[in-house]
Write a structure and sequence with these properties.
Organism: Rhodobacter maris
Number of helices: 12
Order of helices and strands: EEHHHEEEHHHHHHHHH
Keywords: Receptor
Shape: elongated
Radius of gyration: 27 Å
InterPro entries: PAS, PAS-like_dom_sf, PAS_fold_3
Number of domains: 2
Pfam family, one: PAS_3
Largest sheet: 5 strands, antiparallel
Number of strands: 5
Protein name: Aerotaxis receptor
Helix content: 55-70%
Structural class: alpha+beta
Length: about 400
Amino acid sequence: MTSQTDISRMQEGEALFGFDELFYSRTDKRGVILAGNEVFRRVSGFEWDRLLGAPHKLVRHPDTPRGVFRILWSALGAGHPMGAYVKNRCANGDHYWVFAVLMPVEDGFLSVRLRPSTALFERIRDVYARISARDRSENTDPELSANELRAIAASEGFSSYTSYMAFALGQELAARDKKLGRPADPRTSRLIEMNKALEQVTQEQMKLLRSFEALQSIPNNMRIVASRLEPSGGPVSAISENYKASSMVISERLRSFVAGRDNLCDRVSRQAARALFLLGSNRVLSEMNANFAEADPVEGIDWDHERVLLQKLEENTRRATREAMEQAVSHADGLSRSSAEIRRQMLGLDTIRVLGRVECGRMRETSGGLSATIDQLDIFHDDIKKRLESIMRLSEEIGSAMNSFLRGDRV
């Protein structure tokens, strides 16, 4: 197979390997290497007698933050696949970068790794350099750097690290296709599109909560204004009390919708992110299986067993992708219905707001403070309704996109 290389962005001491090449390795549950392919041996520079039976950390480079492995082991230990950018070291001290797709298999873990080349990879490389330097100088707890990496994902609008890595995998696969002169893969393109919609849902969710929390102070402001404008128990006071009572009902509904552990938005995000990562992983596994069919066996490795295991994993991943998509579609439908219900409940608040505006007109010259308060309500109501409509639209897009995969049996 002809190696496709691009040395324009290589670092000093970086080992060359092709975009057309995939690394393969399998370990037991302790991380001891049980099998691998020739690409792994050649690029790492370790011979098979050094690799087989050795812990996978043999190729670990100190420039990969320990928090990366904390995230990986946490996901794999829970039975979930995960991806990560990893810097590895060679036997001669050189290094190489990979995007690793890791999956739990019977009695251990399996990894397929490709060469990264995106702008996201360049950013991650800088992040890793900063975090790993601190890890070494301060001997920090791996959970600290793991939390920092999760915070970076959240700051970029992703609901979870899985979603962030699904996005990364989609980007790397699309870039790899371009490097190899392949036509854009429709599954990868759709993966990227769905992940963007998922990211937007997360952003809208956060903005919606902020707007509604800001709204909660307005009934109190109305009561303060009312105490200056009318006797106790007057119409403005009654309006403010009715608004507060109605908004509290919506607030509770909204919190179960977008806040707290296992809320509906998170359920959509979690299942959609899992489906998207599995979708990309399935494509990588499919190519790895094709490579195995052409590769020469390695002495000391039961090649037939590895081939059967890979084929079984590809089938299982395809099935798991469908299941995750079905769950995501179900949650997305629920999310859309809940958004519509809260939108209808907001109409009740609109009626109370209009009554407040009527009182502003009745009070005329004395209603300046009340008018400003009602103006605030106008702004927040418009913003909340826009956020709800956006979440409805995006959840419908996610559900529709995943349904199209399911109907076409393309996963």
